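ESCALATION

Customer reports they have been waiting on this structure for their group meeting. Please prioritize. Original submission:
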Amino acid sequence: MVSKPNDITNKILLIPKSIIWRVFSSIHISTYSINRINFTFMKSSYFIFIISLFFISCNNSKHLILPKRNNAAVTGTEFYKSVFSAGRIERETLAKNEILHGNVPAFLRKMVKIKTSITTDDGRIIHAYYFAIPDYLSIGSDKDFARIPLTPMAAQVIADSLDCFLPTRKMVNDIYEEAKVKPDPVPMYAFRDSAVTMYQHNLIIEGQRKLRKGLIAGIKKDVVITEKLSRASTPDRVAIYGWQKPDGKPIQPLYTGHVNWYVDYSHGIRLIDRTIYVNNKPMDYTDVLKDKTLRRLLCDEEYCDCYRYNTTDSVTVSTQ
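Update from on-call: job pushed to the front of the queue and completed.
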């Protein structure tokens, strides 16, 4: 049965204004005030056409909804040089502000589709896909950007602002399998948590990348969510995993030994859009992880009950 125009209009009128804001942001009507969208405009054919195109396109592509990058914003090189002598708290605060104000390379904003599937106990095949950023969270322009290691608290603030989440161990493996660019890991040993070493490591990766484009993986240890945090007696930890060698085996097994404020050059933040398409049906990632069958699409642990890091220092993981 085909919906009548009035039926479509009535359904569109129920869309939350936060979603409508994302629509207009994605088509660069950033100065339009959502609070001034009136009933007449929302019933217009133009508005319905834009909304329809937006929701159709969401199944095929995703973009980080960030402010447009200011041409005068610092480059990746300039940012690192400005924080070489800064403390970790100051460096992280500055990095978080740069990212949330849109100082992110354009290529990083277009997310990449990652496919996965499982076979259920009764023989059914369930297909799913989700969207991930093509590289680790970075500051700067396309010509001069730098990957920025962050604490899980800062990463979660950014993820929350962009309707994203941090990956699981399984997702890190799936992303590596689909990656087009897979440089060999390059460990560094001196001053691991200094901004100088972080910048040097970024330069090494760029030398390996050789301007190749596309989904890149295996160059960092991902900050991940894991039940080892939600079920730990000491929740003030960060979970890391990955840094795959050419044979796909990770240098870093799933590890929760570091306190949550510890960050070094090898850590990377990969954002995942929180909408998972299960047999083409959109679902929030938390609903997927709570389902005893569907959770296997995203997670290879027993309980899969860690969904995010809290953004305070006292308790850093959440099962809500």
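Sent to customer with the following note: Residues 121 and 167 are 25 Å apart (CA to CA).
Escalation resolved.
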